[in-house]
Specification:
Radius of gyration: 17 Å
CATH architecture: 2-Layer Sandwich
CATH superfamily: Metalloenzyme, LuxS/M16 peptidase-like
Order of helices and strands: EEEHHEEHHHHHE
Distance between the termini: 12 Å
CATH class: Alpha Beta
CATH topology: Cytochrome Bc1 Complex, Chain A, domain 1
Strand order of the largest sheet: 1-2-6-3-5-4
Number of helices: 7
Shape: globular
């Protein structure tokens, strides 16, 4: 049965324990996604998620990858219209590392210009890939028609034009404006 705690800073902490296995999953679910974007920066939540493991004031992108992979942990993230999540899983003895890395990327990301340009390219490829998938086109068109001129009616990925032009300051500003434990944070630790 999960334990739910409201921390003094406003963040919700959820912990759960299953005593039959030796792994742990740690994640941060922010109640922010594409629905929180202004039209001019559509796609910024997803771009921010792509930048998560690309370097902090404390670790370079290479250091993050090395620390995580050296102990056999896996890490990932995703963006939806309402949630952006960052998570790691691995052996239970590495729980402190998982918490430290997730906390580091959510508080001290540097948004390095070179890494930002690389991720723009990755997202532009994603946009192209989705344009080749009829079911993705239909789903986006349905959302656009159901929610005209609203964030819920726009693509989570944004448009190629916007992704090419979003500035580093806009990405950082979006994070500072919406990644706030009192508003959005749910930190979950599940020991398996």
């Amino acid at each position: 049965m999960p334990n739910i705690h409201k921390l003094k800073n406003g963040m919700t902490l959820i912990t759960d324990y299953v005593n039959t296995v030796e792994t742990v999953s740690v994640g941060m679910w922010n109640k922010v996604g594409a629905r929180n974007e202004r039209k001019e920066i559509n796609g910024v939540a997803h771009l921010l998620e792509h930048m998560a493991f690309k370097g902090t004031k404390n670790r370079s992108a290479a250091q993050i990858a090395k620390e995580v992979e050296l102990v056999g942990n896996s890490h990932n993230a995703y963006t939806s219209r309402e949630i952006t999540a960052y998570y790691m899983s691995g052996l239970k003895e590495n729980v402190e590392l998982s918490i430290d890395v997730i906390s580091d990327i959510l508080q001290f990301s540097t948004f390095d210009s070179k890494e930002l340009d690389k991720e723009r390219g990755v997202i532009l490829q994603e946009i192209g890939m989705y344009a080749d998938e009829p079911d993705s086109i239909v789903a986006d068109k349905f959302d656009e028609l159901a929610y005209p001129d609203q964030p819920m009616g726009r693509s989570i990925l944004g448009t190629a034009e916007i992704i090419k032009s979003i500035s580093r300051d806009e990405v950082e500003g979006f994070m500072k404006g919406f990644y706030n434990p009192k508003k959005n944070g749910v930190f979950c630790i599940r020991k398996f």
